[in-house]
Amino acid sequence: MSQSTYVIGHQQPDTDTICSAVAYARLKEKQGADAVPARAGELNPETQFVLERWDVDAPSHLEDASGEQLILVDHNEHSQTVTGAREAEIMEIIDHHRIGDVETSSPILFRNEPVGSTATILSELFDDAGETPSTRTAGLLLSGLLSDTVVLRSPTTTDRDRVVAEELAEIAGVDYEEYGKELLTHKSKIGEKTPREMILSDFKEFEFGTHELGIGQIETVEPAVVLHQKDAVLEAMDDVATEREYSAFVLLVTDLLEEDTTALVAGDEIETVEAGLDTAFSEQEAFLPGVMSRKKQVVPPLEDAFR
Amino acid sequence: MSQSTYVIGHQQPDTDTICSAVAYARLKEKQGADAVPARAGELNPETQFVLERWDVDAPSHLEDASGEQLILVDHNEHSQTVTGAREAEIMEIIDHHRIGDVETSSPILFRNEPVGSTATILSELFDDAGETPSTRTAGLLLSGLLSDTVVLRSPTTTDRDRVVAEELAEIAGVDYEEYGKELLTHKSKIGEKTPREMILSDFKEFEFGTHELGIGQIETVEPAVVLHQKDAVLEAMDDVATEREYSAFVLLVTDLLEEDTTALVAGDEIETVEAGLDTAFSEQEAFLPGVMSRKKQVVPPLEDAFR
């Protein structure tokens, strides 16, 4: 019997990562592959809402991928992969981020496209294969797309995302603006979290040359809930930066309604962060007008500054 | 005025690399981009024949890519890129090899597919864009496809390559078996070369962990022409391995008619090469039955052995 292939997204999974893993496993199964969706960490409240809304079981947690066959979705760098991925065989990659450090020995399918969500690419792969996603799968893909693009408002949004969102909404039988607004309220249920949970809930590590950085993002309609506890949040950031030996920990508190970001910073390399973001921090805080995308507006200039 | 983007393949360019660069630049131009094909080295006799046959100018030689915008075709690792590529902006990658070490700061299009040639993927991109290649462009794409797959005989050949070859042959107005045989005779004009020219004419460098390797391939219908001068060839391989501090230099002399390979080896790490290829060298020579593809049958096991 041949081995199952796990379809899996990044650590600290978000809605696009989970929904893409489930949807791509379904497409691979339709095509005769033995593919199983999996996750590399705990579900966030928004994703829990989405899975319940579309009546889909949560993918099981893959604790250690050593020796397994993996299809990576929504990431392509080892600082974000499931534990053991370096000892796994990477069979395919579908993503929409910068090109990272995952290498393979053999030629594989790697489809990375500069669009708003991995779900967008997967919807097009269904099309290419002549398959129509089921109502549930369309609901999941739409959720991934709307979550990652902040209901088509993020600067990462492309015309392809808009076209795909309409197609998926029709199959899923929802109004995407209305459904999107419902999603956002779940994304922003942050009041119940501890500062440490808050800063690590949507969090990614990056290696830029010799520097390791942590960059977290809180997308919310109520940034004041975070900023009113700034001292406790900064203390949690300091702790994480020290434990993990980060050169800097940047937290983006993104206001989904005003479409801008307040950044907090901890660590030793604050001046390099200032140079990268072309800003000045006052009491470890800086306002970044128009910034909504970690991937497109924050990671590239920080990488340039740190390399 | 905005900057031109160079579409460029790997060093020691082969027919697939050159034809893919020319064809993709044409597609990008049709889509309104300012894209110019370029090359990272001298043309081989087969590629010269192809450009004359289809009456297409050779792309100009890009000596230094620093500060330029690049679209990489037919490669995605820095040991094979044009000089200065690390200081260039990589805009897109279209390839059919293993996933290598090229990283980017921003999300880009990276389409890597496990098919027989980059030309195959480009033909499908023409299709996706609703464009039909001209007779000349179809002739170039067919040449890249037939050259890389040894007229659909290499184990890297997929059903997609076969379908695309028929479509391109129809547009170009040639019989692909007949045209392919004509191509092969040009590929195998090696009798006129010095041993050093011979071993470097289709040559790639790889970094496997701390080891640098050179792996050359001579695809020919007359392997005896190479093997009869074995001592001179090994001496040239020794020279190159010493100059460039390779752990090993492996030369694959591939018999296109018998569909097997005789490997020659030089350098300090012969035992690791033996372990990787699961063979024993006698007087620096080993016979590899059924081996035709450097990419699929030689690079992966050598990488495993050296890491």
Automatic annotation (TrEMBL), chains A, B:
<dbReference type="GO" id="GO:0046872">
    <property type="term" value="F:metal ion binding"/>
</dbReference>
<keyword id="KW-0479">Metal-binding</keyword>
<dbReference type="GO" id="GO:0004427">
    <property type="term" value="F:inorganic diphosphate phosphatase activity"/>
</dbReference>
<dbReference type="InterPro" id="IPR001667">
    <property type="entry name" value="DDH_dom"/>
</dbReference>
<dbReference type="InterPro" id="IPR038763">
    <property type="entry name" value="DHH_sf"/>
</dbReference>
<dbReference type="Pfam" id="PF01368">
    <property type="entry name" value="DHH"/>
</dbReference>
<keyword id="KW-0464">Manganese</keyword>
<protein>
    <recommendedName>
        <fullName>inorganic diphosphatase</fullName>
        <ecNumber>3.6.1.1</ecNumber>
    </recommendedName>
</protein>
<feature type="domain" description="DHHA2">
    <location>
        <begin position="180"/>
        <end position="306"/>
    </location>
</feature>
<dbReference type="InterPro" id="IPR038222">
    <property type="entry name" value="DHHA2_dom_sf"/>
</dbReference>
<dbReference type="Pfam" id="PF02833">
    <property type="entry name" value="DHHA2"/>
</dbReference>
<dbReference type="GO" id="GO:0005737">
    <property type="term" value="C:cytoplasm"/>
</dbReference>
<dbReference type="InterPro" id="IPR004097">
    <property type="entry name" value="DHHA2"/>
</dbReference>
<keyword id="KW-0378">Hydrolase</keyword>
